[in-house]
Amino acid sequence: MKTVSSLLDAAWHERYRRIASLNIRSSIYDVTNRCNLRCKGCFFFSSGEHHVTEETDIRKWEAFIDKEKERGVNLAILIGGEPTLCMDRVEAFYKRLPTYCATNGLIKVSREKFPEMMVGISLWGGGEDEKILRGKDTFAISSKNYEGDPYTYYLYTITPRQVGKIEPVVKRIEDVGLKVHLQLLSNDEGVDGFSWRPEELRDLRFEMDEMLDQYPRTVISCKYYHEIITTGKMMGRAFGWRECPSVTESLDNRQPPVKRLIHFYRWAADLKSVHRCCTSATRDCSTCKDGAAHMSWVMVNKRDHFNSTKDLQNWIEVYEMFAKLYRLIPW
Ligand code: SF4
Ligand code: SF4
Q1: Is the CB of residue 176 below 6 angstroms from any atom belonging to ligand 1?
Q2: Structural domain total, the chain
Q3: How far apart, in whole angstroms, are the C-alpha atoms of residue 9 and residue 4?
Q4: Does 292 contact ligand 1 (Cβ within 6 A)?
Q5: Ligand 2 in contact with 230 (CB < 6 A)?
Q6: Which pTM does this prediction carry?
Q7: pLDDT per residue as tens digits for the range 126-145
Q8: In a domain? residue 1
Q9: What separation in Å is there between the alpha carbon of 294 and the centre of ligand 2?
């Protein structure tokens, strides 16, 4: 049987050892049902996940987070709605757990209060696409709020209209001293012209590779991720419900059981309800382009990457990318 030692040289073995000790146990929390934007294609609102009664008592949030910690969670991923509308809840997480906050960047997180909290700012393309899909060019505001911040990066959701035009967006991000992670729009609300065609995905893969080659200090990514996210294939298997690792544990009744994120939950803002997965509960899994779910898909299928040195190196690079996004290892 092939082993880690037989496949990797000393340098790669050290990289493997560094990530193998991380033991990440993440869960996702809807901090609020409200947002200061209403983007077309927002999975949260389009799937009606905001139709729960939001818990407003901060003591209940604190007790809930303590229980999550007892459950073994060691990485809290805050989404919404817009988490920064409820800074007291964000603070309750940050005081108790390593915390990542996904935001549209319109409200600045205080670095006095949250010195090392990871912040991921959503960006849906260049200024024109942002105006169509989100009603405003959010970059103009978020880049002023976070310029040069060492714990912030852009989560750039690429739309089909962006193919061939990514470079200026990446350059804009580099110019304000921030980093970027690339992911793909799933077009949950069927906006005209924003659904993927196979030839666009093929072109996009090579464009993403080019961006990584051209901006290696700015783009947090790897080429295997580009292959997986644009083809939806890994080791000849197709991504979808049968393969997805990011399903809430209590709702996962798949048989035979699937390799999945251990103890993963996605909690609603009432602190009682759970959602099906890390993204839209109503999305057709066969069209899902969720970046984190694809990354996790690779990560939980380590053994399948023991065929060759290249396969295992690919697996390590995806794991490192995930760890970098949460600053579990340095950029
Ligand atoms: S900013 Fe985020 S949560 Fe708010 S509407 Fe847009 S995608 Fe949805
Ligand atoms: S929508 Fe995507 S993340 Fe959710 S269960 Fe389906 S494949 Fe997984």
Answers
A1: no
A2: 1
A3: 9
A4: no
A5: no
A6: 0.96
A7: 888 889 889 999 999 999 99
A8: no
A9: 9
